[in-house]
Amino acid sequence: MSMTQHAEPAVTSPPATGPKGTDGRTAERPLALRLLARPEVGVFLGAVAVLVFFLITAPPVRDGGSMANILYQSSTIGIMALPVALLMIGGEFDLSAGVAVITSALTASMISYQLTMNVWVGVIVALVVSLAVGLFNGWMLVKTGLPSFLVTLGTFLILQGANLAITKLVTGNVATDDISTMDGFDQAKALFASSFDVGGVQVKITIVWWLVFAALATWVLLRTKYGNWIFAVGGNKESARAVGVPVTFTKISLFMLVGFGAWFVGMHQLFSFNTVQSGEGVGQELIYIAAAVIGGCLLTGGYGSAIGPVFGAFMFGMVQQGIVYAGWNPDWFKAFLGVMLLGATLINLWVRRTATRR
Q1: pLDDT tens digits in sequence order for the chain, 358 residues long
Q2: Which of 171, 221, 226, 343 stands the most exposed, by the fewest C-beta atoms within 10 Å?
Q3: pTM of the model
Q4: Helix (H, G, I), strand (E, B) or coil at 95
């Protein structure tokens, strides 16, 4: 009897063939679902919606100079959001990223001014310090097995205190001295903080760097072995290690990439304003992480893109400046961002569930 029951399906249910087969493993999903599966699609639609909203409610946004200012604000967030996003895809995040930007700027300024040296010496020393901070975070993570939250929270507190204490000790003030008259300043400013004219509109060089870094990060993620390593260690580091992925190198290098981003943004701030306030940077790490999350990166790792955080950063810049251009109370800025973050997270969750549903 049991043999007869076992054989019946083989006679009455022949295997399906062709594109109309119902096997969920081989059936091709609709184009819309395949597009939704891309981590950057949801935030792109959200960015378009925010842009249209402020174009309607804030007429000054339509001006070329206003849009250049919005893109500039977006770029200062976006340059840091890119390495932070790569780190999140790799399964970690960095709470020290905001104050690390100020540490980099303070180092370059004080080395140059207090030692009376060419500003490029300070720039190079600041790069070494920033990479060392990233190396320390990554090394502590892989050697101790502690969560990145605890490791980078400790680094955040160390850098926050050191920024203020060392600046007061060296300069006698909470801010560094003006370095605009020192040797090499003009050349460094041209690289990190210059502007150029496009149709009568002044465009900041950081916008160009932002797009270049985004293109480079996208190429690394999608076209290189290192990009595969990032996704692998973020998805399951033990499985990645079992197939030969250098997990330790990948984790540490991702933290060092965040250090590089902190150095670059720090140099921009220094050469834009000629001086640095030692207490700044606190809270910016949450902005960078939020831009990456809104851009489709998951806190659990293994999923995301480099293009998504570009749109996430644009949304931040758009809201930040759009509120001002609309004449609204800027005190609502953080509340608006909180709503936007929660909304984007829920939309990303829905999109992923819809796109992966069979």
Answers
A1: 444 444 444 444 444 444 444 444 445 666 655 666 666 777 888 888 889 989 998 889 989 899 999 999 999 999 999 999 999 999 998 999 999 999 999 999 999 999 999 999 999 999 999 999 999 999 999 999 999 999 999 999 999 999 999 999 999 999 999 999 999 999 999 999 999 999 889 999 999 999 999 999 999 999 999 999 999 999 888 899 999 999 999 999 999 999 999 999 999 999 999 999 999 988 899 899 989 988 888 888 888 889 999 999 998 899 888 888 888 887 777 787 778 777 766 776 676 666 556 5
A2: 343
A3: 0.86
A4: coil
What phi and psi, each to the nearest 5 degrees, are found at residue 305? -150, 175
Rounded to whole angstroms, how far apart are CA atoms 156 and 150?
10
Neighbours of 344 (CB within 10 A): 22
CA angle 31, 50, 203 (to 5 degrees): 105
Q: Read off the tokens for 160.
A: 């926050």
Length of the chain counted residue by residue = 358
Quote the CA–CA distance of 267 and 126 in Å, as a whole number.
9
Could you tell me if 98 and 288 are in contact, meaning their C-beta atoms sit under 8 angstroms apart?
Answer: yes
In the numeric block, which tokens belong to residue 16? 């399906």
Q: Residue 83 has which token pair?
A: 């390495």
Residue entry with tokens 């891309």 = 38
- CA-based nearest residue to 287, from 45, 84, 61: 84
CA distance 199 to 2: 82
Pairwise CA distance, residues 142 & 167, whole Å:
31
Alpha helices, DSSP H, located in 224-327:
225-235, 237-242, 247-273, 284-294, 307-325
230: closest CA among 246, 243, 215, 214? 246
> Alpha-carbon distance 118 to 88, whole Å?
36
Please name the residue that has the structure tokens 């300070």: 122
Structure tokens belonging to residue 133? 């901070």
